[in-house]
Design brief:
The structure is a homodimer of 353-residue chains.
Chain A (H helix, E strand, L loop, with lengths): L1 H24 L4 H9 L3 H12 L3 H14 L7 E7 L5 H14 L4 E6 L10 H7 L1 H4 L4 E4 L7 H17 L4 E7 L4 H6 L4 E6 L20 E4 L6 H16 L13 E3 L8 H17 L2 H27 L2 H15 L5 H16 L1
Parallel strand pairs in A: 1-4, 1-5, 2-3, 2-4, 5-6, 6-7
Chain lengths: 353, 353
């Protein structure tokens, strides 16, 4: 079985690039994509996501047709967001947790949302190497960040990628992100459960946590609770428990717990899966699970509209030409902000007429 | 002197409404407004703000001309935002602090930002009665929420009202808001210093604090530290100090302090003014004060554009007609969110062409 899996990976990583010229020419139909995804072909799954991530208008249309056909099969997974500072051990945790879940019979997809990495990110090989053990498991699919450019684009594509993975039958979608700007809020808006990974330490050392992130987490996990760090991890856990007392819980009816673990040795990792299960039971019962998903879909619509309107505005030729100068004028206090906005809006709407 | 002040108030509250019919007809010119504001006429100041708050396109144009002429005289005040749950004692604090500041020779304007009160808010008399002592002082001007409707509108108008008050020579602008949704974030984006008012209590009792508010505050003030509550207030102070250790400070170079006070007796209120002064010194020296103001102006431009684009979109006739049904379809999962957004965007842009 392992042989077969390794073959799939080789196909994705080695043969596909080698054959890319001819393969690119061999266009798949909407039906090909849909059937491929539904029959769990990893190659077609990967190609579907590539289609979604494409910025060409033609691909966009095809992608929307594929998504429309896959949509009825989506929604049956548990979507878990995982965030943490660089170095907090996200990949190790995902590897350990992911292997556990596959052991239990689940199919696990790992997606990453990291707009900051658009320019610097490594190849797909890099991401797969990072989670080497996990990537070798049959029930697993790993997909790095889309190279969509703007955060809005990444969001759209990540949400659509979740749908495709669900239609392909994945039970659990782990969405990894790092703490860059609006990132966590974005991921929170597409998952059922949101986990914040931390490391032992106190006070100033922890100042790196982005504002508001603690409040959107459904659980905090202090990683690296191993050897000498164990005591400090427990202390950190206690401090966060105190801090959480002052915050409203991220999910109604659920008290955000704090755990310690060692993703390296695996100790304590099962706590988080237990918590996720309890969370699911409670929120499915009190209606929060469905309510959040419905609202996430509605938020998605408004986010798309918002993104499109802004995109349209700021990519408008006249606006683009004038923007730098107007920005400068505002920063040097030589123009009233309302007048600056008016100027730009006039450029946009007059051109339209 | 007090007699004169009372006369001004009577003029605002009694004579103006009585004379409103004839006064409304008596149109002021842009110059009249500008000269009135600059010569510290409270009646004209109030009318200028009314002009700004008006939703008529004609008034909008005039207001923009007035603002343009007043803009060079703006920017010389200290802008302080004050938030807290209903019942935390904001009005009492503003009254005590405001009277202290006037005693020290400052001119103080009090504005409120409370979009939630648009439907239910009392009259201007109600707001002035609430801060009875303060409203009787000569150096003080109190203005309740604009009835602008949407939060975006309120924001625009509140920012413009700040500018007008500054041009009228007010040294300190206190902007009061209550914890409703995006409210605090909005007020934070227009002030130099942001104060969160709390009451003694612990754990669950404090859950009412909105997410993220603690992280945007430059100081926390536990009010009602009087009589039996004094000990509990100190305990609460300690707990918040611990909680703050885990958060990045709202302003670079400034460690968010926590104080206790009694707005009723005045005990401890001077601490907050001392803190604001230290804050000013530090942030003016490290550049954060100017940097924040410049960025706030730029953010204001983008917020206006954003607001206008959305407003335009959602007030579009075809979009309005289709919206309810599409929302329903999204919530009942019978349409893909991307398709829903596409439908609405098509309605908007096709009509445009």
């Amino acid at each position: 079985m392992i042989l077969k899996v390794e073959f799939t990976i080789i196909l994705d990583l080695v043969i596909m690039p080698l054959m890319s010229e001819s393969r690119k020419r061999e266009d798949l139909s909407v039906d090909d994509y849909v059937r491929g995804v539904r029959s769990d072909s990893r190659t077609i799954l990967a190609r579907t996501i590539t289609l979604i991530e494409s910025n060409s208008p033609e691909h966009y249309k095809k992608a929307q047709s594929v998504l429309k056909m896959l949509y009825p099969y989506s929604g049956n997974s548990l979507r878990v967001g995982i965030t943490g500072m660089p170095g907090s051990g996200k990949s190790t945790l995902i590897e350990t947790l992911g292997c556990d879940l596959i052991e239990q019979g689940f199919k696990v997809a790992v997606l990453t949302v990291d707009p900051s990495s658009v320019l610097t990110r490594g190849s797909i090989l890099g991401d797969k190497t990072r989670m080497e053990k996990l990537s070798r498991r049959k029930g697993c699919f790993i997909r790095p960040s889309p190279s969509g450019g703007t955060l809005g684009g990444v969001t759209r594509k990540s949400r659509e990628t979740i749908l495709v993975c669900e239609a392909a039958g994945f039970d659990i979608i782990l969405i990894e992100t790092v703490g860059v700007g609006q990132n966590e809020i974005t991921v929170r808006s597409m998952v059922d459960f949101f986990l914040l990974l931390l490391i032992p330490g106190a006070g100033d050392e922890l100042q790196g946590i982005k504002r508001g992130v603690m409040e959107i987490a459904d659980a905090l996990l202090i990683n690296k609770a191993e050897g000498d760090h164990k005591q400090r991890a427990l202390q950190t856990k206690h401090e966060y428990e105190l801090a959480l007392k002052h915050l409203a819980p991220a999910t109604r009816g659920w008290n955000t717990p704090v755990y310690t673990c060692s993703a390296q040795t695996g100790e304590g990792v099962s706590n988080i899966w237990d918590a996720i299960n309890r969370f699911q039971q409670i929120t499915r019962k009190n209606g929060m699970f469905d309510e959040r998903r419905k609202n996430q879909n509605l938020d998605w619509v408004f986010a798309l509209i918002d993104h499109y309107l802004k995109d349209n505005f700021f990519s408008h030729e006249e606006v683009q030409k004038a923007l730098a100068k107007i920005k400068e004028d505002v920063l040097s206090d030589s123009i009233l902000p309302t007048a600056a906005a008016d100027q730009l809006l006039n450029l946009f709407f007059h051109q339209k007429k």
